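Troubleshooting entry. The earlier prediction with farnesyl diphosphate gave an output that would not parse, so I re-checked the input for stray whitespace and re-submitted. Clean input:
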Amino acid sequence: MPTASLPVTSDPSPGPAHVAIIMDGNGRWAKARGLPRAAGHRRGADAVRRVVRGAGELGIPMLTLFAFSTENWARPADEVADLMGLLRHYLRSELDELLRNGARLRVIGNREGLPEDIVRGISDAERQTQSNTRIDVNICVNYGARHEILQATRNLARRVAAGELSPERIDEQHFERELLTAGLPDPDLVIRTSGEQRISNFLLWQCAYAELVFVDTLWPDFGKDHLQQAIAEFRRRERRYGGIGR
Ligand code: FPP
Protein backbone atom coordinates (compact mmCIF):
# COMPACT_ATOMS: atom_id res chain seq x y z
CA MET A 1 0.00 0.00 0.00
CA PRO A 2 1.45 3.44 -0.84
CA THR A 3 2.37 5.47 2.24
CA ALA A 4 -0.11 8.20 1.33
CA SER A 5 -3.07 5.87 1.89
CA LEU A 6 -1.96 4.72 5.37
CA PRO A 7 -3.62 6.24 8.43
CA VAL A 8 -1.73 9.24 9.84
CA THR A 9 1.74 7.97 10.74
CA SER A 10 2.99 10.89 12.76
CA ASP A 11 1.14 13.61 14.62
CA PRO A 12 1.93 17.07 13.33
CA SER A 13 -0.10 18.84 16.04
CA PRO A 14 1.68 19.70 19.28
CA GLY A 15 -1.13 18.19 21.38
CA PRO A 16 -2.07 16.41 23.47
CA ALA A 17 -5.74 17.16 22.93
CA HIS A 18 -6.79 14.66 25.58
CA VAL A 19 -4.84 13.84 28.74
CA ALA A 20 -6.00 11.02 31.02
CA ILE A 21 -4.56 10.48 34.49
CA ILE A 22 -4.48 7.46 36.79
CA MET A 23 -4.24 9.26 40.12
CA ASP A 24 -2.21 6.97 42.38
CA GLY A 25 -0.31 7.24 45.63
CA ASN A 26 -2.71 8.91 48.06
CA GLY A 27 -2.29 6.09 50.58
CA ARG A 28 1.52 6.16 50.39
CA TRP A 29 1.54 9.94 50.72
CA ALA A 30 -0.44 9.63 53.97
CA LYS A 31 1.58 6.68 55.29
CA ALA A 32 4.86 8.55 54.79
CA ARG A 33 3.48 11.26 57.11
CA GLY A 34 1.95 8.91 59.69
CA LEU A 35 -1.53 10.07 58.65
CA PRO A 36 -4.67 8.03 57.95
CA ARG A 37 -5.30 7.11 54.29
CA ALA A 38 -8.31 9.46 54.32
CA ALA A 39 -5.90 12.40 54.73
CA GLY A 40 -4.11 11.28 51.55
CA HIS A 41 -7.38 11.15 49.65
CA ARG A 42 -8.31 14.64 50.92
CA ARG A 43 -4.99 15.99 49.65
CA GLY A 44 -5.65 14.03 46.45
CA ALA A 45 -8.90 15.95 46.00
CA ASP A 46 -6.92 19.22 46.41
CA ALA A 47 -4.61 17.99 43.63
CA VAL A 48 -7.66 17.36 41.42
CA ARG A 49 -8.65 21.03 41.82
CA ARG A 50 -5.07 22.21 41.06
CA VAL A 51 -4.68 19.98 38.03
CA VAL A 52 -8.08 20.88 36.53
CA ARG A 53 -7.17 24.55 36.83
CA GLY A 54 -3.64 23.94 35.50
CA ALA A 55 -4.92 21.94 32.53
CA GLY A 56 -7.25 24.81 31.62
CA GLU A 57 -4.35 27.27 31.85
CA LEU A 58 -2.19 25.01 29.66
CA GLY A 59 -4.91 24.94 27.01
CA ILE A 60 -5.58 21.19 27.25
CA PRO A 61 -9.02 20.65 25.68
CA MET A 62 -9.86 17.43 27.57
CA LEU A 63 -8.79 15.94 30.89
CA THR A 64 -9.96 12.55 32.19
CA LEU A 65 -9.28 11.48 35.78
CA PHE A 66 -9.63 7.97 37.20
CA ALA A 67 -11.16 8.56 40.64
CA PHE A 68 -12.82 5.26 41.61
CA SER A 69 -12.62 1.90 39.86
CA THR A 70 -15.11 -0.96 39.98
CA GLU A 71 -12.34 -2.81 41.88
CA ASN A 72 -12.08 -0.08 44.55
CA TRP A 73 -15.27 -1.39 46.25
CA ALA A 74 -13.00 -4.12 47.66
CA ARG A 75 -11.29 -1.55 49.93
CA PRO A 76 -12.31 -1.34 53.61
CA ALA A 77 -15.83 0.10 54.01
CA ASP A 78 -14.59 3.23 55.82
CA GLU A 79 -12.17 4.06 52.99
CA VAL A 80 -14.93 3.59 50.38
CA ALA A 81 -17.14 5.89 52.49
CA ASP A 82 -14.31 8.49 52.65
CA LEU A 83 -13.91 8.41 48.87
CA MET A 84 -17.67 8.72 48.29
CA GLY A 85 -17.75 11.58 50.82
CA LEU A 86 -14.99 13.39 48.92
CA LEU A 87 -16.80 12.93 45.65
CA ARG A 88 -20.06 14.20 47.21
CA HIS A 89 -18.18 17.22 48.59
CA TYR A 90 -16.34 17.82 45.29
CA LEU A 91 -19.57 17.89 43.28
CA ARG A 92 -20.94 20.57 45.61
CA SER A 93 -17.86 22.64 46.40
CA GLU A 94 -16.17 22.57 42.99
CA LEU A 95 -19.15 23.48 40.86
CA ASP A 96 -18.37 27.21 41.03
CA GLU A 97 -14.69 26.53 40.31
CA LEU A 98 -15.62 24.37 37.29
CA LEU A 99 -17.92 27.12 36.02
CA ARG A 100 -15.20 29.76 36.59
CA ASN A 101 -12.72 27.58 34.65
CA GLY A 102 -15.17 27.14 31.76
CA ALA A 103 -15.07 23.40 32.43
CA ARG A 104 -17.68 20.93 31.26
CA LEU A 105 -17.95 18.01 33.67
CA ARG A 106 -18.86 14.47 32.70
CA VAL A 107 -18.81 11.52 35.05
CA ILE A 108 -18.01 8.25 33.32
CA GLY A 109 -18.89 4.92 34.91
CA ASN A 110 -21.71 2.78 36.16
CA ARG A 111 -24.04 5.03 38.17
CA GLU A 112 -26.24 2.16 39.34
CA GLY A 113 -23.84 1.21 42.12
CA LEU A 114 -23.50 4.77 43.48
CA PRO A 115 -25.41 6.39 46.37
CA GLU A 116 -28.54 8.15 45.10
CA ASP A 117 -27.57 11.66 46.26
CA ILE A 118 -24.23 11.37 44.42
CA VAL A 119 -26.04 10.32 41.23
CA ARG A 120 -28.25 13.42 41.61
CA GLY A 121 -25.18 15.61 42.28
CA ILE A 122 -23.51 14.24 39.15
CA SER A 123 -26.54 14.92 36.94
CA ASP A 124 -26.88 18.41 38.40
CA ALA A 125 -23.17 19.29 37.89
CA GLU A 126 -23.22 17.85 34.35
CA ARG A 127 -26.32 19.88 33.49
CA GLN A 128 -24.97 23.13 34.95
CA THR A 129 -21.63 22.84 33.14
CA GLN A 130 -22.87 21.41 29.84
CA SER A 131 -22.43 24.58 27.79
CA ASN A 132 -18.87 25.27 28.96
CA THR A 133 -16.32 24.94 26.19
CA ARG A 134 -12.85 25.81 27.57
CA ILE A 135 -12.03 22.35 28.91
CA ASP A 136 -13.85 19.03 29.16
CA VAL A 137 -13.26 17.35 32.50
CA ASN A 138 -14.24 13.69 32.71
CA ILE A 139 -14.12 11.93 36.05
CA CYS A 140 -14.27 8.13 35.99
CA VAL A 141 -16.25 6.86 38.96
CA ASN A 142 -17.26 3.22 39.45
CA TYR A 143 -15.55 2.65 36.12
CA GLY A 144 -13.95 -0.53 34.82
CA ALA A 145 -12.91 -0.99 31.20
CA ARG A 146 -13.64 -4.71 30.98
CA HIS A 147 -17.15 -4.14 32.26
CA GLU A 148 -17.60 -1.31 29.74
CA ILE A 149 -16.40 -3.55 26.88
CA LEU A 150 -18.70 -6.38 28.00
CA GLN A 151 -21.67 -3.99 28.13
CA ALA A 152 -20.87 -2.74 24.62
CA THR A 153 -20.63 -6.34 23.39
CA ARG A 154 -23.96 -7.24 25.00
CA ASN A 155 -25.65 -4.21 23.41
CA LEU A 156 -24.33 -5.12 19.95
CA ALA A 157 -25.28 -8.79 20.46
CA ARG A 158 -28.84 -7.71 21.35
CA ARG A 159 -29.04 -5.69 18.14
CA VAL A 160 -27.76 -8.66 16.13
CA ALA A 161 -30.29 -10.98 17.84
CA ALA A 162 -33.07 -8.48 17.04
CA GLY A 163 -32.04 -8.57 13.37
CA GLU A 164 -31.06 -4.86 13.38
CA LEU A 165 -27.38 -5.42 12.67
CA SER A 166 -25.40 -8.09 10.86
CA PRO A 167 -22.19 -9.31 12.60
CA GLU A 168 -20.14 -8.53 9.47
CA ARG A 169 -21.14 -4.87 9.67
CA ILE A 170 -19.79 -4.39 13.21
CA ASP A 171 -16.79 -2.10 12.93
CA GLU A 172 -14.82 0.15 15.32
CA GLN A 173 -17.34 2.97 14.95
CA HIS A 174 -20.23 0.71 15.97
CA PHE A 175 -18.26 -0.48 18.96
CA GLU A 176 -17.21 3.01 20.05
CA ARG A 177 -20.77 4.21 19.98
CA GLU A 178 -21.64 1.62 22.64
CA LEU A 179 -18.87 2.68 25.03
CA LEU A 180 -19.40 5.07 27.95
CA THR A 181 -17.05 7.46 26.13
CA ALA A 182 -19.15 7.52 22.94
CA GLY A 183 -18.44 10.70 21.00
CA LEU A 184 -15.30 11.59 23.02
CA PRO A 185 -11.82 11.54 21.46
CA ASP A 186 -9.36 8.85 22.63
CA PRO A 187 -6.69 9.95 25.12
CA ASP A 188 -3.40 10.98 23.48
CA LEU A 189 -1.47 10.85 26.74
CA VAL A 190 -2.04 8.71 29.83
CA ILE A 191 -0.14 9.68 32.98
CA ARG A 192 0.10 7.44 36.04
CA THR A 193 1.54 8.86 39.22
CA SER A 194 3.35 7.17 42.13
CA GLY A 195 5.85 5.07 40.16
CA GLU A 196 3.42 2.24 39.38
CA GLN A 197 3.50 1.17 35.75
CA ARG A 198 0.11 -0.40 35.02
CA ILE A 199 -3.10 0.51 33.20
CA SER A 200 -5.37 -1.11 35.84
CA ASN A 201 -8.51 -1.62 33.73
CA PHE A 202 -8.59 2.05 32.65
CA LEU A 203 -9.98 2.96 29.18
CA LEU A 204 -8.54 -0.22 27.62
CA TRP A 205 -10.18 0.27 24.22
CA GLN A 206 -9.62 4.03 24.14
CA CYS A 207 -5.92 3.91 25.10
CA ALA A 208 -4.93 1.68 22.16
CA TYR A 209 -2.58 4.34 20.76
CA ALA A 210 -2.04 6.56 23.80
CA GLU A 211 1.44 7.54 24.88
CA LEU A 212 2.07 6.37 28.46
CA VAL A 213 4.04 8.49 30.90
CA PHE A 214 4.77 7.13 34.38
CA VAL A 215 5.92 9.59 37.01
CA ASP A 216 7.23 8.92 40.52
CA THR A 217 5.40 11.83 42.13
CA LEU A 218 2.58 10.75 44.45
CA TRP A 219 -0.79 12.12 43.37
CA PRO A 220 -1.28 14.56 46.31
CA ASP A 221 2.01 16.26 45.30
CA PHE A 222 1.13 16.42 41.59
CA GLY A 223 0.47 19.84 40.09
CA LYS A 224 0.55 21.96 36.97
CA ASP A 225 4.38 21.78 36.68
CA HIS A 226 4.30 17.96 36.69
CA LEU A 227 1.55 18.04 34.10
CA GLN A 228 3.64 20.35 31.96
CA GLN A 229 6.67 18.02 32.26
CA ALA A 230 4.57 15.01 31.21
CA ILE A 231 3.30 16.98 28.21
CA ALA A 232 6.89 17.89 27.28
CA GLU A 233 7.75 14.16 27.39
CA PHE A 234 4.70 13.43 25.21
CA ARG A 235 5.88 15.99 22.64
CA ARG A 236 9.28 14.29 22.43
CA ARG A 237 7.62 11.03 21.45
CA GLU A 238 7.03 10.03 17.87
CA ARG A 239 3.53 8.62 17.38
CA ARG A 240 3.43 6.04 14.60
CA TYR A 241 0.05 4.29 14.98
CA GLY A 242 1.57 1.06 13.65
CA GLY A 243 3.16 2.82 10.65
CA ILE A 244 6.89 3.36 10.16
CA GLY A 245 7.07 7.00 11.17
CA ARG A 246 8.94 9.93 9.77
C1 FPP B 1 -5.15 6.00 44.45
O1 FPP B 1 -4.41 6.11 45.61
C2 FPP B 1 -6.26 6.90 44.46
C3 FPP B 1 -7.56 6.51 44.51
C4 FPP B 1 -8.00 5.12 44.57
C5 FPP B 1 -8.65 7.47 44.53
C6 FPP B 1 -8.44 8.77 43.82
C7 FPP B 1 -9.22 9.76 44.55
C8 FPP B 1 -8.91 11.06 44.71
C9 FPP B 1 -7.76 11.67 44.06
C10 FPP B 1 -9.68 11.95 45.58
C11 FPP B 1 -11.12 12.11 45.26
C12 FPP B 1 -11.39 12.48 43.87
C13 FPP B 1 -12.29 13.42 43.47
C14 FPP B 1 -12.56 13.61 42.03
C15 FPP B 1 -12.97 14.29 44.43
P1 FPP B 1 -4.24 4.85 46.53
O2 FPP B 1 -5.17 4.97 47.67
O3 FPP B 1 -4.39 3.59 45.74
O4 FPP B 1 -2.76 5.06 46.99
P2 FPP B 1 -1.70 3.93 47.39
O5 FPP B 1 -1.47 3.10 46.14
O6 FPP B 1 -0.50 4.75 47.76
O7 FPP B 1 -2.28 3.16 48.53
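This one parsed fine. Confidence is low (pLDDT under 50) at residues 1-12.
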